Amino acid sequence: MADVKLSDEITARMIKAAPDGIDVSPGSIFYDAIRPLAIEIAELYDQVERVLDEAFPDTCGEESLLRHAESLGIKRRAATRAVAVGRFDKMPPVGSRFLLGRFVYTLGDYMEEYTSGRYKYKLVCDTAGSGPNGCADGELIPLSYIEGLTFCSSDGILEAGRDEESVESLRGRVISARRMTLGGGSAGDYTAAALAVDGVGAAKIYPAWNGGGTVRILVMGVGGTAPDSGVVDAVRAAAAAIAPIGHEITVAAATATPVAVNVTAVYADGWNAATAKSAVEGAVREFIRDACDKFASSDSLTLHRSVLEAKIYETGVVKSVTSLKFDGTEGDLALGADAFPVFGSAAVS
Question: 53 to each of 48, 94, 111, 239, how far by Cα in Å?
């Protein structure tokens, strides 16, 4: 819809350019002739602005962003399904389904007989996305009768589910790809190749890490997880496909480092350690995720106590944090160059 203010300005300019002696008041022949034209010109201005916005990935809408991504060989990451570990005292039939919390899981691949008469299976969530990640342990409820089954439970997440990539995440990847200097086996080449592999969340490139012509690629999985061997192999193949003759490529999985956090606090009115635990744990998990987001751009990661404290205060459940320890030690926690943090535990008192 045309901007009314702009159309008024255009009308005023047309009236100003009219020959002397012509009636230009509203309702006159001249005015009634130019007013619709001014509105159409204002609409053209508006359309030109929209076309200009759609031409650049930092201002375009979702549909145009997908086209920008496609032109760079970038695909939007699809949602994936969480995989949990189920324990049973009888081998369930193929296709058995179970309720865990508010999510339904379907029996997947057999894993092992972990003790006599007890079996582990993969359970694949029917709902794609990250929703099941935080509630994937506990009692399983069969959705149909399974003869002889008296025990079934979940040990938690084996592979975290992933939401469809957000528009802003995709926008960031497209902008980064446009800014990279590609060609000739550059770090930008290898970064783009690694991030194009499904299951890769971040990639750190070490050019000439063992002399000229050597490149090391360190890979972290999506959502701050350790990539499996299949992802590492796929990155190795993708890098080899673009490497100039003579480049020696080494690809390794980054090391997932569980971090245990101990928090002692004075709680806000109406809260205590038990009721505040969920909020504090949520702050710790968000803090870990934020740290993982810096993996590719940092030589090594350091977990800063002050940053986590700020996130805990933002929950509103504490008045003051009197002690905060990473892995039993007060102060910041420095990780190795190949490491990234994962949530280990959060003890609240």
Answer: 9, 52, 51, 34
